[in-house]
Structure prediction request, 329 residues.
Amino acid sequence: MKITNITVQTFRYLSNTVRDAEGHGHPGPEHEATQSLTTIHTDEGVKGYCFGGITKGVLEGILKPVLVGHDPFFREQHWQELKARQRLNLATLHDRVLTTVDMALWDLAGRYLEQPVHRLLGAMREKVPAYASTMCGDDLPNGLATPEDYANFAIWAVKERGYPAYKLHTWQPPYPNAPSVKNDLAACAAVREAVGPDVPLMLDPYHYYSREEALALAKGLEALDYLWMEEPMDEHSMSSYVWLCEKTRLPICGPETAEGKMFTRAEWIKAGACDLTRGGVWDVGGITPLMKIAHLAESFGMRMEVHGGGPGNLHVLCAMGIKGEFYER
Prediction:
């Protein structure tokens, strides 16, 4: 079987999600939005799909020359070659492009073999628990404007919807009075009181706190018995995370958005900059590298917690030998 073509189809749909100045999604008025679907075609009629856009220049200048005419089952070879091409094409051949291609190739293999991808990866389980992951605090009516709003939403998510765990994304710019360690801890305390001592809770706060602010957050969460905190500081400063891990018993999860795929995760683990590592298909370039990170974590007896939802992350979770505890939803 050979790849014969790669196509990208863009279509329009109605959406109720708007983005703030920092790029965070929130409910808003209905409007027209666009989405793209990438398809990898073969000479046997089998196709692989992934939602994600690719520019015409990258499609024609890099992807087709690398992939067309080759066996779609050589996923590792294709991923390694595209990763090597990133060196001189970082502005256009970014990790989300690698993710789109890699996911489409895995999808193609699953369709050809009539098996879900987690079984191709080496199945460990068929289902995983999910935690309810809030959006950042906002000032919308019936939104997450106060600590009580977070607590009420936690009660709904845990007691009515049945989520076994809950994560807060607290207030961030451009909203007034954000960021604030005091306000973050007030919301975290209100949620702990609302759901009781046995529900696992996590915090994803403002991402650019200082060391002192991040430590104050960590100490407050220690007292509230939180499961972990992620990305309270700029992740380009790995030494700041080493410093934080040495000063708190609260587990620190990361890196999440730092570039570098499995290489960056290895350096963080070696340096003692995290207690559990982090990865998502859209952060590291696909299912193929995310499985490398899962095996890396397993080698150190460390959990890897998956960042974000979507089918790629779910398949990896169901194939991980070491326990990744939750799916983020």
